[in-house]
Amino acid sequence: MALTTAEVKDLGLTTRLQLSDKEIAGLQVELNNILEYVEHMKQLDLIDVEPTAHPVDGTDGGRADVPIGSLARDMLLMNAPESRDGAFVVPQIKAPGMSDASAGGSA
Amino acid sequence: MSDSTERDLQQLPFLSAAHISTLVTSGEVSAREVATTMLQRIKDLDGDIHAFNEVTPELALAAADALDKRIADGATADELGQLAGVPVAFKDNMNQLGTHMTCSSRMLANFQSPYDATAVRRLLDANTIPLGKLNMDDLACGSSTESSATGPTYNPWNRKHVPGGSSGGSAAAVAAGMATITLGSDTGGSIRQPAAFTGTVGLKPSYGRVSRYGCAALASSLDQIGPLSHSVRDSALALSAIAGIDPLDASSLDVSVPDFAVACDHALQGTAKGMRVAIVSDVLQQDGLDPRLKAEVLTAAELLAQQGADIIEVTLPSAQYGPPAYYILGSAEASSNLARLDGVRYGHRAEDATDILDLYLRSRKEGFSPETIRRIMFGTHVLSSGNYDDYYLQAQKVRTLIKGDYAAAFKQADVLLTPSTPTLAFKFGEFADDPLAMYLSDYYTSLVNIAGIAALSLPTRLIDGLPASVQLIADHACETNLLRAATLLESSLNFDYRSVPLTKAAAVADA
Questions:
Q1: Residues contacting residue B354 through CB under 8 Å, at least 6 positions apart
Q2: How close does chain B come to A76, measured CA to CA in Å?
Q3: Inter-chain contact A55–B348, Cβ cutoff 8 Å?
Q4: Is residue B94 pLDDT above 80, yes or no?
Q5: Nearest by Cα to B473 from B422, B425, B405, B424
């Protein structure tokens, strides 16, 4: 089913991407082309086929449950856009006057 | 410097890894001379190619000097290994201490590697000389290296054509003789497709064969690190060095790692007698396949038959559903993995954000390429409630069918032969208005990632001045079969990788 302009706009908010109306229009065409491309696969009758989530069996054993060292705090903060007192700095969660719905998005 | 040493250094860019390590460990040429020769070559050539995002002379010279000291202290060639003194470079989505890891993305333009990726560490531990970090598509989303935030890489065989992608820098660096072995990563063909476009050997190992720790994840159930090189044997040497279980990657496999180069040597001592090679007949009928590349597959089968291989035909009946399934699975996993790039802990942060949502929305939009944005949005769409069963779950079921197709084929054959790509290297901008058409470039390669098996792209000859290739495929953890067949085929083909036009220009300049 083809995506509407409103759905593409909503998808932009869900994926946390600020898109202009022009970009939304372009993406609507491109995403619908991709959906059309995968359509013939969607139509296959696979009701009795088990899904495969991972290509190889037996790769999820994990290591022994023993603590190992991790990166030092200064290494973790080395690439932070902004940090202070050993912590990441972010802007305030909600701008003054913003409603709960717009802050939370529609995800 | 003796005449023979000078000659060796001039030929260095296209010498085999074993030859270079012999020169270095015997003391005929110092590792420092290898490093300085290669760094100079990059300086001379990379302005026209742009394979490198970052060249690391300090790291290269430090590694070379450390190796020279060990040799002076009496370390033997056996102790130092066949990669000692070999110039290498890494795709820029792998962490390497002392370098940036940009993923050729504005999002990670200033990201400094906080540790070494396991595959990088293992190749460095093999006494190689690290020359730098290599260009790629933005966050590995692309098939041409055109989406790189640092600008495109050019195909050394013809600069009007792309080198493929996403590991375009890894392929072009080898093709132009600016590194002997490079590492790339392959999610749907990102090692093999650029190898095919640049006349290099590109090996995607079986899923789990090589640790993915320290490589920026695109699609975690599809990604695999592998080598690119001039020869099959050099890729085999690199694979032996980087393969094996890693406690830091729960998906790495606890299977034995044979000396893959020995498998290549054994192949050359024998024939292909007893080897079962299958042409995948139905995928050769695929629309859009250049008939000249179809002919390369048939010729390759004939060459292996002349060496004693049994040639049969098999089919992969579900192959036509593979590329759409790949696109759904790959985008879904990418949208999840790339959610971590939010401008908070690392990566690009938009200026003067008014609140956290504004920070997310603008940082991500400013940081990602249009192709990455398309994949994130498509991947999120197919994972959303109401669409999950129709797309994502359905694609996982197609994955079951494709694995079944391959399992049936490998009951009859040891190695499968297909094209690597439907076309020769395309021109810059050819798919600018039709991103979907570029996805078909991965048609023959992405099927292999879906099944998690091993495959290699091997150059065959030049067509219209551009490299042609074939793809060999082997079952999971059966790289020995793959390398044996590829070595025999390579010996029949004798692809002249030294004839890359850039080399001629450089040789004239040297003279």
A1: A91, A95
A2: 8
A3: no
A4: yes
A5: B405
